[in-house]
UniProtKB/TrEMBL annotation:
PANTHER family: PROTEIN ECSC
Pfam family, one: EcsC
InterPro entries named among the record's database cross-references: EcsC
Protein name: EcsC family protein
Organism of derivation: Flavihumibacter fluminis
Length: 238
């Protein structure tokens, strides 16, 4: 057990350095282009997309808290980690099947993949939080879940900012407003959408949509799971 925690502590340190690294040349170039494209989109469109994503996530956040398991108690850190890894694998397989089905269905089903996959990601995060012993009925734990989602699917520049919000979370959470409406939904939806655009657009292409959806969804859920594990390790390990 002690050896396992030492290995995980080293793994966590490497991940933390990655979260704080400076944006590379191609990352800055890609983000600059995405910002330019966003500037061409009418403000009303931005408002509609932001409101849609906000309401979608709020529905999942406030619904999943009633369907999620209670916080896992009296289990060792190793046992929690093994249970978390099993949940990640389960959601990877579920998301890959969903991606293959919607990818094979053409444009309309391909578009349906966005809310379905987002719901699976959020449910996975709720399960992981509970397995690590955190109560998702607490509003501030649900804000932490949103930050994990941001951390996994954002540009490196925004990732740096989000990571700083999550360090010493107990102190940061005490300063949070009580209204989730004050969360920066506009920035959230732009970062999330920009990160997924290239990967998910190929899923809309006939013939290749199914295999692309299968592989992309599998990898996206894997990335989210690894991010979540390290985000909670950061709060648990000394």
């Amino acid at each position: 057990m002690q050896g396992y925690e030492q290995d995980i502590t080293r793994e966590l340190w490497v991940w933390q350095q990655e979260m704080q690294s400076s944006p590379g040349f191609f990352n800055r170039l890609s983000k600059s282009w995405q910002n330019k494209v966003n500037s061409w989109i009418p403000e009303k469109v931005h408002q509609v997309v932001t409101t849609t994503i906000k309401q979608m996530i709020r529905a999942v956040l406030f619904g999943a808290k009633y369907t999620s398991a209670p916080p896992l108690q009296s289990e060792s850190f190793w046992a929690r980690e093994m249970a978390v890894k099993e949940r990640i694998e389960f959601y990877q397989k579920t998301a890959s099947v969903e991606g293959a089905v919607t990818g094979a269905g053409g444009l309309l089903l391909g578009l349906a993949d966005f809310p379905i996959l987002l719901g699976l990601k959020l449910k996975l995060l709720f399960d992981i939080a509970s397995l690590y012993g955190f109560d998702v009925k607490d509003y501030k734990e649900r804000v932490y879940i949103l930050h994990i989602l941001e951390l996994a699917f954002s540009s490196q520049e925004h990732r740096n900012q989000v990571y700083q919000k999550m360090v010493n979370w107990k102190e940061k959470a005490a300063l949070l407003p009580d209204d989730i409406h004050q969360f920066d939904w506009r920035r959230f939806q732009q970062e999330y959408r920009d990160y997924l655009d290239l990967a998910k657009l190929a899923q809309l292409i006939p013939i290749i949509g199914a295999p692309v959806g299968l592989v992309v969804n599998y990898r996206l859920v894997r990335k989210l799971g690894v991010t979540a594990m390290n985000a909670y390790r950061m709060r648990i390990l000394p």
